[in-house]
Amino acid sequence: MPACSTRLGVAVTMILLVAAGAAHARLPADAPPLPPPDPGVFTVVQVDTVQELADACWNLASNQAIVVAPGTYDLTDHVFPNGVDGRLTVGRYGAAPISNIQIRGATGRPEDVVILGGGMDDDTVPFGFQVFTATDVIIADLSVGQVYYHAVAIQNDQGATRVTLRHCRLFDAGQQVVKGNRGANPGAEDVVVEYCEVFLTAGAIHHPDLGYCYTNGVDAVGGRRWVIRDNLIRGFWCQDGTLAGPAILMWQGSLDTVVERNTILDSSRGVALGLVSSSDHSGGVVRNNFIRWSPGAPYDVDVAVSTTSPGSKVLHNTVLTHGLYQPNGPVAVEVRFAGATGVEVRANLMDAGVWPRDATPLVVDNLTTADPAWFADEAAGDLHLLPTAPALDLVNRLADCVDDFDATQRPTAAGAADVGGDEVGAPLYADDFESGATGAWTVTVP
To answer: Nearest 5°: phi and psi at 307?
Structure first.
């Protein structure tokens, strides 16, 4: 399992600061900027109308970068190249594969480039981006929403894999906002979702195809080695008050998922490694996340973190449930099914307990009495610890979680690490990197 400090980014000058109890955000706005597409590597295509964008996506070839000018791009208002509907295709269905693709907002600000469909209940635009026969794809610095199915769909049945969604606003999809599909293949590999805001503005609808609410933030079937980090994920609940799916769901044969440093707010369920059986997911780690349920939630609420995955680890998360999920007393973390062997639940800071539901996990060094008064701004979801919180200097640093929510190093001295996602007083590099060496990054930017 990679250490918490593995990163995707751009090396810049480091300035060492000392964070003496201060709250350092780890949210989409903190994304280090990507360099412009290298014209020595990419053929750069500049677009500034919705028709140019649709045509450029339809005609993509390997080693191309589409740079999208600021503006609102209404996918209902153009003649789409496939003659069917308003989706943006990355690699055509059934066509020869392409690779090394970038689709980027021109300014680096996702709010400047907004790609819209006709609405969550309007099938004119079923998808925002649908990645078919493309690999090594980066979609960055733009917004996609108001679509019938998914804002981004990664179709591994057509070969799509190694896709990075970076610093995007992805919102208001009729079903899952980000979806990883599979056919005969195992599922998309090495997908990264980072520095994104993934949300529903007013909950999920009854989908016209189904007649009921069927939603998740990020949902992958058979996903392998996905990394979901540094995102703000919020608002995944059903308008009819019924139980929504998890904000992050990795299942149906997924493995080795890393879910780290995300903030998950105002949702029915949080992170699920597996759902229906112990063969649904294997391995994986959920670490350094902030999860907060709204005390007055008018919708059904379930568990914040659950795993059915043999060999998975739930480490140093901060979870406030406000007592909304009580299947066996208040529960924040649930380990399901007898086949979920070798699970570790360590050093989490919660206001509820761990439920070993037909499983026998290792449960060590968790603190289950968290109080809203311990945090910088609990009501807003800022779960950085105050220097007076009784969660400080209680545990040893874990080899699988050497840093914290802010990607700052935990202390190595025995018993000097804090419980939960935040480490008070940890040193912070202003650029969020421990070193300028690109070998420390998880994914290399072309």
So the answer is: -140, 135
